Structure formats: structure tokens, C-alpha cells
Amino acid sequence: MWRSLRSSCFLLASLAAGTFLYGSFGPEAAQAQTLDDRLAKANPAKGEVIFVRCGGCHSIEEGGPTKLGPNLWGIIDRPVASVDGYAYSDALKEYGGKWELERFDAFLKDPAGAVPGSRMAVPGVTDDAERSDLIAYLNQNSANPLPIGLDPELAEAAAYDSDKTRDFGLLVDGPGIAKTYALCTPCHSEMIIVQQGKTRARWDKALDWMIEDQGMAPLSDDDRTEILDYLEANYNEDRPNFPKR
């Protein structure tokens, strides 16, 4: 009797507290967002910044060139491994089908896991929000974009407001910080930048060394100029932003 009474009291207390089943057995599942939910709030303006990580290997404009990877214009819903003249891996050819949103999301999250044997030997975009923003940006670069993501004008405003409060670690705020941060931090801490002071020419040589000897993807001229402008203004030989101890 007492055992039954205790069980009943526990059930009533759990229901009153809103924890029975939900709080005790899987709030993460209850709070998890679907891909449709994420894409409805995705910000293509933020995705454009994230694409800096991809732009060394992929062009995005219509008719753009093949780099280390194929052009990504119209990638959403495009047949997999379909850019003429590009030497795709056998694994990706066998994967087949189209780059539907669910498949593309899984591939961007973990390329090697989604398509074992793919030549896209880079870490995936594991953050759900960043990956959704990137998909929204790629979707805009198409003759027939899907109705996903924020309105472009709202997206620009949201991206601006977000950047004003975004944490760029040790890097000082200024024009070009977003692309510099996106380029450098996937591979190492921003400390490698803030501890140094170089002329523009020496930063330029450092980028050459990283591309030619360390395997970093090449940069577009515009991205390289924007990053060098930021480094010259904030991390030159005077070391105006050297971290204070």
C-alpha cells in the first residue's frame, strides 16, 4: 500500500512539475529542431561569411570555374556528381541521386561519414545553425532557389546586428574581421594572429606559404584583399593590438 501511495505521489508531483516523461526522459528530443525549422530561420547573409571557408575550393557564381572542387551554382536539388569535366570520386558517383536538402545537410555535417570515400577531405560544418545559414546562402545562388531562409533584407539586418555582438575571440573588431576569423579559426586558435606583427607584404607572404606549403585552399582576390586590409590595420609591425597580460 505504501509503495503504491509513494508511486502515485511521485506521478502527481512529476506531472505538477512538468517533468514526467518530458523532463526526465528526453528534453533534448522534445526541443530538437527539424531541418525545416532550422531552414525557416536560416540567414543567408551569415551563410555568405561561412562560405569563405569553402570559397578556396569552390566557386559559387553562375558559370564559375572549377577549382579544387566543382562549381556550386544551383547545387540544391542538382544531380550528385554532375558538373561536366570534374573528376568525381567513385564513391560520390555511386551515391547518386540529387542534392536534396536532407542529403545535402547530412553531407555538409560530416562529408566522410555521409559518403565514405569522398574526396572532400575536410571537417564538416557541425553547428546546426551555421550549416543551415550556409545552405540558405547556397540556395540563393541558383536560377530556381527554394523558398527557404529569411528575406534577404531582413537577413542583412539580422547579420549586421549579430556581428555587433558576435564573439570573435581575441581578434579586435574591424572591417574584415568576419572573413579573417572564418578563414583562420577552423585550423588553429586566433592567438597565432594576435601574437604577431607583420607588414602587409609579410602577411601576404604568410598566406602564400599557408597555401603553397601547408595545403590551405587558395583565396579569391577580393577575400585576400579584405583579409590583408584587416591584418595590416590591426596586426602590423607596431602591434597595436598585442594582447596585454
Would you kindly provide a written description of the structure presented here, covering whatever features stand out?
The chain is mostly helical. It has 2 domains: 33-165, Orthogonal Bundle (Cytochrome Bc1 Complex, Chain D, domain 2), CATH 1.10.760; 167-245, Cytochrome c-like domain (Cytochrome Bc1 Complex, Chain D, domain 2, Orthogonal Bundle). The chain has helices at residues 2-17, 27-31, 35-40, 44-50, 52-55, 90-95, 101-109, 111-114, 128-140, 152-165, 177-184, 191-194, 200-212, 221-234. Residues 1-31 have low confidence and may be disordered.
Mean of all residue-level pLDDT scores? 79
Total number of β-strand segments?
Answer: 0
* Total number of distinct structural domains: 2
Helix content: 40-55%
From the 3D coordinates, which CATH architecture of the largest domain would you assign?
A: Orthogonal Bundle
The low-confidence runs, each spanning 5 or more residues with pLDDT under 50, are: 1-31
Q: Please report which band the strand proportion falls in: under 5%, 5-15%, 15-25%, 25-35%, 35-45% or over 45%.
A: under 5%
Which structural class should the secondary elements be placed in?
A: mainly alpha
